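dumping this here before i forget
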Amino acid sequence: MGTKTPSWDDLRMLLAVHRERSFLAAGRVLGLSPSTVARRVEALERSMGRTIVHRGNNGTQLDPDALRLVALAEELELGLASLRRAPRDEALSGTVRLSLSEGFVRPVTTLLARLRVKHPALMVELVSESRMADIARHEADIGVRIARSTSSTIVSKSVGRARPALFASRAYIERRIPSRQLTRAAAAQHDWVGFDSALERMPSEQWMRAYGASRFVFRSNSSAAIEQAILEGVGVGLLVEAQGLAQRELVRLDTESEPPSVEVFVAYHRDARSTPRVKIVARELEDALRRALA
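structure:
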């Protein structure tokens, strides 16, 4: 990137485009026309000496290097917000309830711990569950989902796609797949780890069977149990790529076809936009998941 330091106005334009994923939606949030937002972002790109916002059929997407500018914008935004607040941060006190599947528990817990440092009066309740809590009935304030809600009272923000990959422990690799390549023809010769029959219709489970997996030696409804079984060398199995790569004792296997990815959404009730504590947790969760899934 270039050496010119962007202004707060530049950064807030970029931040809005990043969050809303289109110039139209960013303009609506900022109270500006989409053309004005586009011109400001283009001016920022000229000052940085490169294109950092890419337009596509599914909306805008930032260059990975530009996420450093987004992080800077978020810090400035929080700093300015703290200056505007009263000495006691009453707006960001109280409890926020989150509902999500077990696979998202670890990264979301890390985010919530950081938020608690910034906002000590904030309390959180995190429920890991396979069912979808009814946000419309306020069973939870925020949900992380792999399907967009059809309810008109629920806001669903897409934060990217979770891309699974096949992993095995280093010990299993050394014993049985030293090439680190698992072909479709060889799949039936290996031990597999997967979800139980209640979740067998998941795209990832269907992909494993279509790829040739037949000997499932370990099944569970717990993604934590599946990850641990793979770590212990029980067999090969699918994990979200970022999740598997974070484990030094796991090795990503090359396959002849890619497992299907799933779109991830952060969902909350429309009324939550008037509740600061829910709004800020949802926004930070969106940004954290976008970075993790990029």
